[in-house]
Amino acid sequence: MEMYFETLQSYRIAYVRQVGPYGAANVEAMDRLKHWANDQELLTESAILLGIPQDDPASTPAQHCRYDAAIVMTKLKLVHSDAVEMSELSGGEYLICKVKHTAEDIQQAWNEIIPHLQKNHHTLDHTKPVMERYRYQLLKNHFCEICVPVKLV
């Protein structure tokens, strides 16, 4: 697994929200987003998709957990659609973990993230969401990136 720090820029995003237990419904939300983005001609090789869990399932009842399937809006056109919501995602310092896109590898990454942050004098920045970032070149090779917001200790 590859880990490095990166400063992410702020993004304008279009997203589909799923409320309920994390899991299969998140995949359905991402599929709905992709269908909409494809219709808008936004699903290109340069597209950036994001999976953004908004709540910690350890402290939020499963039926209230929010997950946003999002796409970075690089075109300057305004979008008015009942299919998606629009928002701004603030940038900042993130630990990026490039992992195989499997449940096992993602779980293993989480076992290593906190010790890696501590070793590098960082802590989780709870004011920003953790995200999974999907870019074409990585996805076609079955990888994704876990993006963990951080701050110096």
TrEMBL record:
Domain spans labelled AraC effector-binding: 1-151
Entries under Pfam families matching the protein: GyrI-like
Species per Swiss-Prot/TrEMBL record: Paenibacillus amylolyticus
Name of this chain's protein: DNA gyrase inhibitor GyrI
